[in-house]
Design goal:
Shape: elongated
Number of strands: 5
Helix content: 10-25%
Strand order of the largest sheet: 1-3-4-5-2
Distance between the termini: 35 Å
Structural class: alpha+beta
Largest sheet: 5 strands, antiparallel
Number of helices: 3
Order of helices and strands: EHHHEEEE
Radius of gyration: 17 Å
Strand content: 35-45%
Length: about 140
């Protein structure tokens, strides 16, 4: 027996639609484990003492994890038929352990099977990341919205 895959479709999406917020607890384990999983062995991502010697208050999240969380935020909303085409973000305030990053988003474009979502990931210090994620629905690519 096989289960049918269900999820959001391209036709369900409208420009101006807001994505549900996603709160991500920033644990020390998340920050260290994801740095190591992305093969980023810079000490500022796993050694608090060395991070402080380099001017940071603690270890902080790496860019690869921030990119991955941005993509995850949009694809969790977009559904299993969407494919990430581009993640374009700028970093701001660091993500430190013990804080929470809240992801928000809004659909800002929809054309020919692609959807562009403006995103922000904010913590108690301000915006950690801001930018856009573009996803495509292959069955609709090349067709008018």
């Amino acid at each position: 027996m096989t289960a049918a895959i269900t999820g959001r479709s391209y036709d369900d999406i409208t420009v101006g639609e807001t994505l549900p917020e996603l709160a991500i607890p920033l644990t020390r384990t998340l920050i260290v484990a994801t740095a190591l999983a992305t093969r980023d062995f810079q000490d500022v991502h796993h050694d608090p003492e060395l991070a402080q010697q380099r001017g940071s208050k603690d270890v902080f999240m790496n860019i690869l994890t921030s990119n991955g969380l941005a993509g995850r935020f949009v694809t969790d909303w977009a559904g299993p038929f969407a494919q990430v085409r581009r993640v374009k973000i700028r970093l701001g305030a660091p993500n430190y352990p013990g804080d929470t990053m809240t992801m928000t988003g809004e659909v800002v474009g929809k054309e020919n099977g692609t959807v562009e979502v403006k995103i922000v990931g904010a913590n108690s210090l301000g915006n950690h990341l801001a930018g856009t994620v573009t996803v495509a629905y292959p069955a609709h690519e090349g067709k008018d919205a």
